[in-house]
TrEMBL record, chain A:
GO terms for biological process: cytochrome complex assembly. This is Heme exporter protein C. The gene is ccmC. It is found in: Cell inner membrane; Membrane. Its main location: membrane. Required for the export of heme to the periplasm for the biogenesis of c-type cytochromes. GO terms for molecular function: heme binding; heme transmembrane transporter activity; lyase activity. Belongs to the CcmC/CycZ/HelC family. The chain crosses the membrane at residues 21-43, 63-84, 91-115, 127-146, 158-177, 201-225.
Automatic annotation (TrEMBL), chain B:
Pfam families: CcmD. The lineage of its organism: Bacteria, Pseudomonadati, Pseudomonadota, Gammaproteobacteria, Alteromonadales. This is Heme exporter protein D. The keyword Cytoplasm does not apply. It is found in: Cell inner membrane.
Amino acid sequence: MFKWLHPYAKPEKAYQLSLAFQRFFMPLAICGLIVGCIWGLVFAPTDYQQSDSARIMYIHVPAAIWSMGVYMSMGIAGFCALVWQIKLLEISVLAMAPIGAAFTAIALFTGSLWGKPMWGTWWVWDARLTSELILLFLYMGVFALFQSFDDKRTGAKAACILAVIGMINVPIIHYSVEWWNTLHQGASITKLDKPSIAPSMLWPLLINIVSVLCLFIAFTCYRFATELLRAESHRKWVLEILGK
Amino acid sequence: MGAFESFADFLAMNGYAFYVWLSYGLAFLLIVALFLWSKWQRKSIEQEIVQQQQVRNIRQQQVNSEMKL
């Protein structure tokens, strides 16, 4: 496998591969989100307890799941970048941070808009909400650290260290609903036994979860390609691609 | 239409229209903003590289013409 992977460590190959991935996953994500959102908004049954406010779930849950998923992949990429000194992985951390921040922001304000009618409050300082807010600040911190050193590599290293350390927050977010008393409900689908949600609601939710993953991959590849151009702007292959 | 009796019912979301439509709308806007920002970054870095290359070409020509003198 490593023999097959090896050519992609070359920046120009990585550039081409990431753009190919972006072209594949972007339409998939858009189609999936259209299907998932229409299914969730129109055809999924109205919740017997929460009425139609429960339809916020079809974007809240995928955004929240991938706000953590993106952080894990960013942290792992940052760890590998630090250990094996791989510049391409540092660039991928920089590419992923704003996407994760956007997903976290979506999870936070859709949660807030769902909490107002159901809990009677926009915001409470409980474990789940606070740790998710910290996740948003971690994303912002990682992105800011990249820009805050004159030497790009020093900034990248500092950002990777923060990305790795911040991973401790992800299990805290996930288990916060079990460890502490909170307004937030427990896990419905990300647990080991049968999901406690009706199939008619589970399907559009699953479609949206997969689509947001595709969206994450597409955005990451696109932003990775851009940052790669910036990092390699004096190389011959960049000039060949842009110069023509 | 699906779980709703009419289109007006669908828009009303059983009284939760404000919360449902605002959360879908803001999520959509944020993703579009991220997309446009990424596109803009890509465009500006492309222009920067092309400009750098042009400056380098001009300097190279100057050096070449000085060498001939």
